[in-house]
Amino acid sequence: MMEQYNNDIDLHVDEEIYKCLNLISPKSFFLFAGAGSGKTRTLVNVLKKVSDNFGKDYRLRNKKVAVITYTNAAANEISHRLEHSSIFHVSTIHSFSWDLIQNYTVDIKAWIETNLNIEIAELEKQQSKSRDLNNKTSIGRAKKIESKRERLLALKRVQKFIYNPNGDNITKDSLNHNEVISITAYFILSKNLFKRILLNKYPIILIDESQDTKEGLIDALFDLQAKFNNELSLGLIGDMMQRIYADGKEGLGNDLPNDWRIFVKKMNHRSQRRIVELNNAIRSNIDNQQQYWRIEKNKGIVRLFAVNRTTNKEQTEELIRQKMYDQSGDENWTGVEQDVKTLTIEHHMAAKRMGFSNFFDPLYSIDKLKTSLLDGSLSSVSLFTKVILPIYIAFQANNKFAIANIIKKYSPLVDKQVLRENTKKLKAIHETNVKVQNLLALWSNDKQPSLMEILKEIKHSGLFHLPNVLNIVLARVDSESSFDELEIENDDRILLAWEKALQSSFDEIAKYNEYISEKSTFGTHQGVKGLEFNRVMLVIDDEESRGFMFSYDKLFGIKPLTSTDERNFREGKETGVDRTTRLFYVACSRAKESLAIVAYTDDPEMLKDNVVKYGWLNIDEVEVIK
After folding, report:
1. CA dist., res. 89 & res. 106, Å (int)
2. Cα–Cα distance measured from residue 35 to residue 22, given in angstroms and rounded to the nearest whole number
3. Which residues make Cβ contacts (< 8 Å) with residue 502, sequence separation at least 6?
4. Which of 23, 38, 244, 570 is most buried, by CB atoms within 10 Å?
5. Which of 125-134, 179-188, 392-401 has the lowest mean pLDDT?
6. Cα 609 to chain center, whole Å?
7. Which candidate, 376, 375, 347, places its Cα nearest to that of 361?
8. How far is CA 217 from CA 81, 118, 127, 181, 188, in A?
9. For position 270, what pLDDT does the model report?
10. What's the whole-model pTM score?
11. DSSP letters of 366-396?
């Protein structure tokens, strides 16, 4: 039974955090903010007060508050709500880190050289123990050694490193995402001048979703705060139950230094009572952090459908939507105005259901491309989503004015400077129009061209600049010999993935763009962290997910724990069940009004019995579909 409370039980937290952000006597803090607790609202409220009271002082002293968020979308939202005030530097952790280190070329070179030599030595040690140097593992390892040695040689020729937080970062003079974070952490730990510059510029550093920020960087910031606690306010905002990436710091928020303050937001402003109760039940065996629901949100509906894996998934999920309508009376579960967010375990499950897997799957298999592919910021994809797709949509609407504006904005052929220097402007404009028509002709007679056909036409016409990696792909496709002149590290997997993705039909781009723009009815369990929806259908199927990090079958007691799981459990280490429990919590806690959990399994009856036994659901909330 929850104690008496009102909707304003967390109001004091904002004031307490504000007191920590004091330049004279700064305090560091950890804010525990569970699902739907309004942490962004708290962050904005506190920072507006900082701006009102200390903004002038910050500007005079050339200081800023660093606000680090998990996604570009979150950074843009917070910047907007702070009215783009100059005293705040709001960015993702990768952008923030690159901003700190980008001018330290000599130091970066030294770090990379040391790191490469360590990696080469380790690979050579492994290779020396291999009994068969002709198996796939040994051949792959040899190629890695060769690639790293080539990068060592190329390092001498690098004048300045480049990095795009939203790009491919595959040339020899570029840094990858992990390197930027690791170098930043190393500089914070080891370079006194770097520490001083960081502290002078950012006396306050606030990190949202801190539980998923790289452990090495968090540890470096802890070390910085411990040594300069009278100069730095480090604020970590998060919820360990929502840690879904393995490289986050385990146990963040526990055993904090004595000079740290700890705050807890107890209210869930998002969800109806029944959903909050489920959230509380799921995490009760993990940390027993319990949330309150708003007084007026005293309803809500949760149902779990235990479904045999042999059923037709499309038909089953449509049937379940109808059942949710019957049991909730909410007509938006069905019909023309259907408004249900379907969450799958893996993005490729959504891609398959929506019909863009031929384009998506090859690129998603490359670790370097995953993050920016998922948030839509991958520069090579932007050519299709931000240029070609809008042209196609305008073409379908017979909107010549819109097409002209897109060409004017993106084409180098009608660049103002180019036209200014061209003595035959009208001829240049006419030739550009012809090239546009040649591009649009690819869609004649309702044809959907492949992405490769579109790319070749653009290359031929010069209508748009092509990203470097796509230029290389075209060169490889057009050449019978290997193309390695641009010194691409580990190029084969990336370029082969692009070659495969570019064979897909253009209509997959529209579906992909709808998905990553969050306009589709699909999302993933982990990808919707921070978002909320009135109606959620949570689809669970270990067999379809192809993953190894998560196992709902183990969580629901359908499959036994492995010996490794049991050993990790005894030793207090994280298990796959721990990770899956957190993922389950994140996904369930997205729902505001109603939640349907669709669990595909080989034993629906056992699943039903177990979730009731766990105390997560009542027996009348679980239905078996065979």
Report:
1. 26
2. 28
3. 450, 451, 452, 455, 473
4. 244
5. 125-134
6. 35
7. 347
8. 27, 20, 31, 7, 9
9. 96
10. 0.76
11. -HHHHHHHHTT--HHHHIIIIIIHHHHHHHH
